Amino acid sequence: MPYVITEACISVKDRSCVDVCPVDCIYEGEDQLYINPDECIDCGACEPECPVTAIFPEEDVPTQLRSFIGKNKDVFEGPNPPGRPSR
């Protein structure tokens, strides 16, 4: 199961998670950072680096934030997928 970035990242986009991701699967959207579920290797390196506790393993996303699982998947299938974050 991939990791998911949730609501706490909106407008924050700290990027600490980007620096530790060994496969560069974290992308920057207009409102938040996103993890590409097809590229995530489930290593968990990003989770402890997030200063706002926005990253969860998919199976541990809190009930009230479950919509972000679909948001993280769907954003990569749209006409304007997120790009590589600036570091």
Topology:
Elements: E1 3-5, H1 16-20, E2 26-28, E3 33-35, E4 55-57, H2 67-74
Antiparallel strand pairs: 1-4, 2-3
Describe the fold and architecture.
This protein has 87 residues and is an alpha+beta fold. It contains two helices and four strands. The chain has helices spanning 16-20, 67-74, and strands at 3-5, 26-28, 33-35, 55-57. A two-stranded antiparallel ribbon has the order 1-4. A hairpin with a 4-residue loop joins strand 2 (26-28) and strand 3 (33-35). The longest helix is centred in the last third of the chain and has 8 residues, at 67-74. The radius of gyration is 11 Å and the shape is globular. The mean pLDDT is 95.
Entry keywords:
87 residues; two-stranded antiparallel ribbon; single chain; 14% strand
Uncertain stretches of 5 or more adjacent residues: none
Number of helices: 2
Q: Can you write the helix and strand succession as a string?
A: EHEEEH
Q: In angstroms, what is the radius of gyration?
A: 11 Å
What gross morphology would you assign? globular
Q: Strand percentage, roughly?
A: 5-15%
Please report the total strand number as a whole number: 4
What is the SS-derived class?
alpha+beta
Average of the residue pLDDT scores: 95
Into which percent range does the helicity of residues fall? 10-25%
- Strand order, main sheet: write it out: 1-4
Give the biggest beta sheet. 2 strands, antiparallel
Alpha-carbon distance between the two ends: 26 Å
